Amino acid sequence: MAADNRTIKELSASGMDNAAPLCIQYPVAAQGKTEEFELKSSLLHHIPKFHGLSMEDPNKHLKEFEVVCSSMTPVNVDGSILKMKAFPFSLMDKAKDWF
Fold this sequence. Notes:
Structural class: mainly alpha
Shape: extended
Low-confidence stretches: none
């Protein structure tokens, strides 16, 4: 068996070419809005978490997620794209595995 002498950085970067695409397809930003922005830690800190447990209500999670994202969307950013980029950060445990 041949030794693999690549660095950790090389190994992690090489997998990206063959990685499955994300299930979220980002739309083109609305006119006058940008799709380029940084998700601030203050937003991510306030996003409700969904673990996928039987006692959790996914519809309630989505409503709470909508309220938080809508209230924290910067003026020049497309809100739909912000929500799509922030959504994976709202999932934990079983829900994240499912995603």
